[in-house]
Amino acid sequence: MKKAFFLDRDGVVNVDHGYVGHYENFEYLDGIFSLILYAQEMDYLPVIVTNQSGIARGLYSEDDFVALMAKVQQDFTANGIGEVAVYFCPHHQEGNVERYAVSCTCRKPKPGMMIRAAAELNIDLANSIMIGDSWRDIEAADSAGIQKSFYLSNSPVTPAQSRSISTSHNVYHVNDLDEVKAVL
Ligand SMILES: [Mg+2]
Ligand SMILES: [Zn+2]
Questions:
Q1: Is the C-alpha dihedral spanning 40, 43, 45, 46 positive or negative?
Q2: Where are the domains of the chain?
Q3: Of the residues 64, 98, 102, 149, which has the maximum number of CB atoms within 10 A of its CB?
Q4: What does the pLDDT average to over 121-135?
Q5: What is the pLDDT at residue 102?
Q6: Which candidate, 5, 97, 102, places its Cα nearest to that of 49?
């Protein structure tokens, strides 16, 4: 079994400009290529798990998203990174595109994307890692049985947030991607 390095997308791989559905708005975070490369060298399989309610909201299509991520993979490849698997949730209950306006099991904080990735890619979740800039990323990881996460945020972790995850789950609060390397 492989261990995965799960990455949220918006706010971790790219700057979260809000509903980024096109390459023109895709601005990489400093250090993301070297971090993914490092994770790969440490035998982690990089896997992006991302909520994309912009699709349910009709702001961009699933095809737009797939085309964007193909370009992102080209950039990864140009930087020496291998294939990065991408799992996305196009749903939102209040979306205005009917087929996506459902209550699903994949939108974080639900763990559906990690569970599916684990089954399809033979991932050992207990030895995998999550990095996210939203607490719901950490909750999703927790529900999936992940024991180690990085919370990339300028906000402190509140006591209520701490209580929302299992005590065996180590969450490292980091301010930038370079900090992640030190404890990976
Ligand atoms: Mg995010
Ligand atoms: Zn979903």
A1: negative
A2: 50-105
A3: 149
A4: 98
A5: 97
A6: 5
Going from the Cα of 122 to the center of ligand 1, the distance in angstroms, rounded, reads 25
How far apart CA 28 and CA 79 sit, in angstroms, is: 13
The dihedral over CA atoms of 65, 67, 69, 74, expressed in degrees to the nearest 10, equals -170
Neighbours of 154 (CB within 10 A): 8
Q: Name the closest ligand to CA 136.
A: 1
Q: Name the 3-class secondary structure at 99.
A: helix
| 96-120 residue pLDDT tens | 999 999 999 999 999 999 999 999 9
Q: What residues pack around ion ligand 2 (CB closer than 5 A)?
A: 89, 91, 104, 106-107
Nearest alpha carbon to residue 145 among 166, 125, 123, 159: 125
Distance in angstroms (rounded) separating the CA atoms of residues 123 and 42: 15
**The pLDDT of residue 82:** 96
